Amino acid sequence: MATLADYGPEVRAEVKQVREVVSNLHQQLIKWNLVVWTAGNVSQRLHTADLMVIKPSGVRYENLTPNSMVVTDLEGNVVDGSEAPSSDTASHAYIYRNMPGVYGVVHTHSTYATAWAATGQNIPCGLTMMGDEFGGPVPVGPFRLIGSEAIGKGVVETLAKYPKSPAVLMQNHGPFTIGKDAEAAVKAAAMTEEVAHTMWAAHQLGDIIEIPQADIDKLNDRYQNVYGQH
To answer: What positions belong to coiled-coil segments (predicted)?
Structure first.
C-alpha cells in the first residue's frame, strides 16, 4: 500500500496546503449551523495526484487540526493519517472517480435540507437565488445505506439528471454538495440549507410559485457567467 512518502515534493506540498483548507472549512460548517457534534464532513481532491483529504471519523469539530485530516487515494485507501477516515470516504471517492470536474465534496445533516430529504421531496425552485445557484430544484436522491460507495453512486446518478445542481438530498439521510473545490462545496451546502428553510416557510403560507424553466436558465446563466468578479 502506498504512503505519502512514496509521492514527490509537489504532491506532499499540496497535501499540506489542502489539509489546512479542509480543516478550516469544517469550522464553516459549525458557523453556518450545518452540523452538530461529529456529524458531517468535508473533502477536497488534489490536482497533483489521485488523492483526497477528508475529515477523520467521529472526531469533534473543536478537536480537528490540519494534521488530523486523513489522506486517502480515490479508492478510499488511507495514504497518510493517524485516524480512521470518515465513514463517507468511499462515497466521496466514488464521486471524484466519476465526476472529473469535482474537487470538493461536503456532507451535512442540516435541519431543513434534511427534513426535505426525510420526506423524499425535491426542494422546488421558487426563488431566483435557487435559479442562480442550482439551475432548478434541489433534487432528492435514492435511499442508500452508509459505509460503502452506494451513497456516492446515488449522488452521481441523481446529478446526471440535474447537471446544474451542486446539491443532492439523499433520501432519509441528508444533503451532499459538490464544487470546483471544497470551499465551493461548503458554499453550496450553506445555500442548500438557506433555500430549504425559506421554501419550508413558504410552504406553510401556501402553494409555492415555481419559476418557469426558461427563466431559471436565464438566471443561472447570468449568475454563473456575469455575476461577481472575473
So the answer is: none
Contacts (Cβ under 8 Å, ≥6 apart) of 78: 70, 71, 72, 84, 85
| Residue whose entry in the numeric block shows the C-alpha cell 488523492 | 51
Strand 51-54 and strand 70-73: the pairing is antiparallel
Q: What is the dihedral of CA 90, 2, 46, 82, to 10 degrees?
A: 70
CA distances from 228 to 80, 130, 159, 165, 221 (A): 38, 17, 25, 19, 13
Q: Identify which of 21, 147, 26 has the alpha carbon closest to the alpha carbon of residue 76.
A: 147
Look at the pTM and tell me if it is higher than 0.70: yes
Q: Are 76 and 89 in contact (CB under 8 A)?
A: yes
Cβ atoms 151, 171 nearer than 8 A: no
User: How deeply is 133 buried, as exposed, middle or buried, from its count of CB atoms within 10 A (0-12, 13-18, 19+)?
Assistant: buried
Interval 89-120: pLDDT, tens: 999 999 999 999 999 999 999 999 999 999 99
